[in-house]
Specification:
single chain, alpha/beta, Rossmann fold, GMP Synthetase, Chain A, domain 3, 2 domains, 4-stranded mixed β-sheet, globular
Length: 438
């Protein structure tokens, strides 16, 4: 009963209760919440208490920035539930191997990150935090309100009590394991008849293809992309197939960071997190987010640097929200390509979006693509086109990439073309990927 009250409270607060006159008032409200949160975290987390030694809460912006390796290296002292990293990993791996994601540790939900950055991380969510997360997610993503019937189909590599918690009252929830064969998933979809689909873009593409081939005869009320970068190519195909916008939820180990509004614009969830912008390129508005989540206490996230590349929107969203509008989540910093300059050999930054735009500009017949940089002078390009156009496409892609590299004054790498192949499952789809380390 307490849990349901918390869910409804946070739903109402998110939907109608929190309103700010302007951006300055919002930032003042954030500041007060963060200072209170910092005082609470300092008392309960030995790691942060030692990290911030002698620094008052009012100077939280001067606290050291932490990253994944530091968080995982100090996991036992950082979390406030008394759970060791060894216990958490054992619980999470057991859930993944058994595919039973319901058990908790001391009432705390334990989950694993996907490990796209090279190592897997742990996230902990307490019972009250889970209820607050549920109310917030439902308020931001659920069409029609909390009391309207809905069937939610959630596709992901691993389930969690956190995700299961969205099943409330008239809301039904079913987890669809990406490791299951596609025909089995489609059969379950037809039987369940879900009207809200939540899945990685690569899975949504497969559902769109199944719809176009006649092997899936469903139309969703809302489509929400999660877990992977929503590439323009995938967005266009999915929206054309189902005749509606693809919404997004920007959710990761470090928190529920963003959600799309009614206009389809992604906004940062600045009612529960504060995002500092580490600018990568001022002209193009690209930045890396440094996250302070003032809604979580079991595994506190304070000035945590993510590895994502975000592009801020050039203009305010027509929806009128005060929350920062994001034009695109571009990928990870690890997937920025580097090519030697033609004059001095110094490495030149090539953002993933540059590569995406060049490949898509080559031909409207491209249906899928991946670009992997194996070394500073070697680029592998795999793609799939509509039948009958593949032979003409290779030189077109090569020409567009050469134009890009010339504009950036880079030495053109050797291009290797291969057949496209990717199956959603254990790995996330990365359309542009750097396969070597600096």
């Amino acid at each position: 009963m307490k849990r349901m009250r918390l869910v409804i409270t946070h739903y109402v607060l998110t939907k109608w209760g929190r309103r700010w006159k302007n951006r300055a008032v919002l930032e003042q409200w954030q500041e007060l919440r963060i200072r209170r949160h910092v005082d609470k975290v300092r008392k309960n987390s030995r790691f942060y208490r030692e990290l911030w030694a002698g620094m008052p809460a009012a100077e939280w912006r001067k606290f050291p920035v932490i990253e994944k390796s530091l968080m995982m290296g100090n996991f036992d002292d950082l979390n406030t539930a008394g759970i060791t990293k060894e216990q958490a990993f054992a619980e999470a791996y057991e859930a993944e191997n058994s595919r039973d994601f319901k058990p908790t540790l001391q009432g705390v939900t334990v989950g694993l990150s996907s490990g796209t950055s090279g190592s897997r991380g742990i996230f902990l969510v307490g019972e009250d935090e889970q209820a607050a997360w549920t109310g917030t997610v439902l308020a931001k993503l659920l069409p029609g309100g909390l009391w309207k019937r809905a069937r939610i189909a959630f596709f992901l590599r691993a389930n969690s009590n956190l995700y299961e918690s969205v099943e409330q009252g008239r809301l039904q929830f079913q987890y669809f394991d990406l490791l299951e064969p596609l025909p089995q998933l489609l059969a379950r979809m037809e039987q369940y008849q879900p009207d809200i689909w939540i899945a990685p873009p690569s899975m949504l593409r497969l559902l769109a293809d199944a719809k176009n081939s006649g092997s899936l005869n469903l139309l969703p009320r809302r489509i929400i992309a999660v877990a992977e970068v929503l590439d323009p190519l995938d967005r266009q195909h999915i929206e054309r197939t189902f005749g509606q916008k693809v919404h997004q939820a920007y959710q990761c180990t470090e928190g529920f960071l963003g959600a799309t509004c009614s206009h389809g614009t992604l906004h940062l969830n600045e009612d529960i997190v504060h995002i500092e912008k580490e600018v990568l390129d001022e002209e193009s508005r690209r930045f890396v987010p440094v996250v302070t989540d003032f809604s979580r206490s079991v595994q506190p996230i304070i000035r945590y640097r993510l590895n994502d590349i975000l592009t801020e929107a050039a203009e305010p969203c027509p929806c009128g929200s005060l929350f920062t509008a994001i034009e695109r989540i571009e990928g990870r910093c690890d997937d920025i390509l580097y090519l030697p300059n033609v004059s001095d050999g110094q490495l030149v930054t090539v953002f993933p979006d540059f590569i995406t735009r060049a490949v898509l500009a080559a031909s409207a017949d491209i249906e899928h693509y991946r670009v992997i940089q194996h070394s500073p002078l070697e680029l592998e390009i795999s793609f799939r086109t509509r039948p009958g156009s593949a032979e003409d496409t290779e030189p077109l892609i090569a020409s567009e990439l050469l134009r890009l590299f010339t504009r950036l004054s880079c030495i053109p790498p050797q291009l290797k073309f291969t057949a496209y192949s990717f199956t959603p499952g254990r790995q996330k789809l990365r359309r542009v990927e750097r396969g070597w380390k600096l």
